[in-house]
C-alpha cells in the first residue's frame, strides 16, 4: 500500500464514521420525537374519553 | 381559497430557516475539522523517517485525546452520581462512554493502519497497545451492561464503578511508553507547521466531541421522556 494511500484511507474512514454516527444520532432523535408525539396523542385521547 | 398574510408567511419562513447556536457550533466544528484535515494533507511537512503515513498522526492523536476526555467525563460524572444520586450525571456519563468508545475504536483502526504502513504490522502486544485494548474492552463491557440491565439505578451504579476503573487505565496508556518502552515512540518536539496542524486538529476533535455529546444527551433525555409517557399510559389503563 502506497504511503499517501493509507493516509487517504484513514481520513476517509474517520470522516465516514463521523457522518454515519451523526446520521444515526439524528435518525434516533427523530424516531424518538415521533414516538413522543404518538404517546402524547394517545394519552390526551384517553383523558378526553375519561 | 385561503390567503396567507405576508407577515405570517415571512414568520413561517424565518422559523423554517432558523439557525440556532447549535447549528452554528456544528458548522464551526465541521469547518475546523475540514481545515485541519486539509492542513494535515497539504500544509504540514512530510516527516523524514516515516514519510507520508505520519500524516495519520493528525487524526490518530486528536481522536485519542477526545476519547480520554470522554472517559474522564465518564469517571467524573460517575463519581458525582455515586455521591449525589442525581440521574442527570448518569445521562452525561453514559453518553460520554458511547462517544469515548466510538473515538477509541477509530484510534485503534487508524493506529493499526499507521502501524501496518510504518512498522509492517497492524497489531503488536506491546504495552501501550495492550493497555488501549484493555480500555476498549472495559467500555465494551460498560455499553453491554447499560444495554442489558433492566434496573436503571443498578446499571447506573455499576456503570459508574466500571467507568472509574476504566479511566484508571488512561494514565497507564500515557505512562507505558516511558516505563516499558514498546514500539510506540516517546513524544518528541515537532516543527511549527506540524504543531499548528496538530493543535487545530485537536481543537476540532474536542469540539466535535462536545457537539456529539450534546446530540447524544438530548437523545437520551428524549428516551427518558418516552419512558415517563409510557408509565403515565400504563397508569391510565
Q: What does this 3D model show about the protein?
A:
The complex is a heterodimer of chains A (50) and B (237). Chain A has one helix and no strands. Chain A is an all-alpha fold. With 237 residues, chain B is mainly α. Chain B has seven helices and no strands. Chain B has helices at residues 6-16, 21-42, 57-84, 87-118, 127-148, 152-179, 192-236. The longest helix of chain B is centred in the last third of the chain and has 45 residues, at 192-236. The A-B interface holds A 1-4, 6-7, 9-11, 13-15, 17-18, 21-22, 25-26, 28-29, 32-33, 35-36, 39-40, 42-43, 46-47, 50 and B 33, 37, 40-41, 51-53, 55-56, 59-60, 63, 102, 106, 109-110, 113-114, 116-117, 208, 212, 215-216, 218-219, 222-223, 225-226, 229-230, 232-233, 236-237.
Layout: helices, strands, pairs:
The complex is a heterodimer of chains A (about 50) and B (about 240).
Chain A: H1 3-49
Chain B: H1 6-16, H2 21-42, H3 57-84, H4 87-118, H5 127-148, H6 152-179, H7 192-236
Helix pairs in contact in B: 2-7, 3-4, 3-6, 3-7, 4-5, 4-6, 4-7, 5-6
How do you describe this structure in short?
The complex is a heterodimer of chains A (50) and B (237). Chain A has 50 residues and is mostly helical.
Quaternary status of these chains? heterodimer
Strand proportion of chain A:
under 5%
Main interface: chain pair and counts: A-B, 31 and 36 residues
N-end to C-end Cα span of chain A: 70 Å
Overall average residue pLDDT of chain B? 91
Choose one word for the global shape of chain B. flat
Q: What is the number of helices of chain B?
A: 7
Largest sheet of chain B, in brief, is:
none
Number of helices of chain A: 1
Rg measurement of chain B, Å: 22 Å
* Uncertain segments of chain B: none
Mean pLDDT of chain A: 92
Please tell me how large the radius of gyration of chain A is. Answer: 22 Å
Quickly give the structural class of chain A.
mainly alpha
Assign a percent range to the helix content of chain A.
over 70%
User: What class do helices, strands and sheet pairing of chain B give?
Assistant: mainly alpha
